[in-house]
Amino acid sequence: MRYYVLDRGDQLSVDLAQQFHRLASERGFELDAESPEIVVSIGGDGTMLHAFHTFIDRLSDMAFVGVHTGHLGFYADWRADELHDLVDHMSGKNGQEPKKPRIVQYPLIELDIYKKSGNSSHIALNEFTLKGVDGTVVAQVDINDVTFEMFRGDGICISTPSGSTAYNKALGGAMVHPQIEALQLAEIASINNRVYRTLGSSLLLPKHHHCDIFSRKEQRLVLTLDHLNIPVDDLISVRCQVSNQKISFARYRPFPFWNRVRNAFLS
Ligand code: NAP
């Protein structure tokens, strides 16, 4: 099996990564930084975001596994003390055939950024946001080429279902099961008066719908893409929709979404 490991960089995660390499070499796994079949992320959900963006051009060829070294994660289900178990599952215990993992796929967002200085395309695992640098953001939001609202406020957050438990949650957005192929638009502190009027609640767009956000004043913006920050001084618009690409996770045991929501936020 070809594998790669990314860790968060703290001592525990680095130690676990070394331990994983040792166990993997005993089982005959091949370390492959270019085209791994399995990418193991050791750290937290933030580490999974890094792993995702590291292999963003090869998503269809690989599956991700998360080991958490802090609290139970949304993308990381294996505990630090279960590393041996994980390697056993991956390699097959006591000479048995390795158990084939269930491959679970989650939706992603694709976005096209149109700027006076050029265009670019991206995909996000959690969300992207548009926020002002100097003041409020002024933007027109169109859904499926029809003007929907004129936004003014701190910003706009467009999240995936698996990102709904991250920034989106802090904005009062809904938790969305990752089997629902949708994107969620949540407002960040909108101003509502006679000129600027927004829905005031988050909304979900299904697959095959698209949303355009047009910059409606000269403004310096920052576009966040998961953990990445992209300064944008000359934005024309951003178009986003549910991507045709997905991220795959290798599940060697069940990891139900609603259990994760309950464990993270309720118990
Ligand atoms: P960070 O600011 O160091 O950490 C953000 C926190 O979000 C971490 O506790 C991280 O978990 C958690 N997280 C990441 N993805 C999650 C998910 N899908 N569901 C639930 N929690 C999640 O930044 P980072 O580690 O580079 O992560 C970037 C993410 O931070 C962004 O994608 C955004 O969603 C989130 N963020 C949240 C807020 C907010 O809630 N007000 C503001 C800005 C950004 P771990 O500790 O397990 O890594």
From TrEMBL:
GO molecular function, one term: NAD+ kinase activity
Catalytic class of the enzyme: transferase
Record carries keyword Nucleotidyltransferase: no
Annotated active site: 45
Keywords for this protein: ATP-binding, Cytoplasm, Kinase, NAD, NADP, Nucleotide-binding, Transferase
EC number: 2.7.1.23
Binding-site residues, NAD(+): 45-46, 50, 126-127, 152, 154, 189
Subcellular location, record wording: Cytoplasm
Chain segments annotated as coiled-coil in the UniProt record: none
Cofactor(s), names only, from the UniProt record: a divalent metal cation
Reaction it catalyzes: NAD(+) + ATP = ADP + NADP(+) + H(+)
Leader sequence segment: none
HAMAP family: NAD_kinase
Stated family: Belongs to the NAD kinase family.
Record-linked NCBIfam families: PRK04885.1 (NF003424)
Stated role: Involved in the regulation of the intracellular balance of NAD and NADP, and is a key enzyme in the biosynthesis of NADP. Catalyzes specifically the phosphorylation on 2'-hydroxyl of the adenosine moiety of NAD to yield NADP.
UniProt name for this protein: NAD kinase
Record gene name: nadK
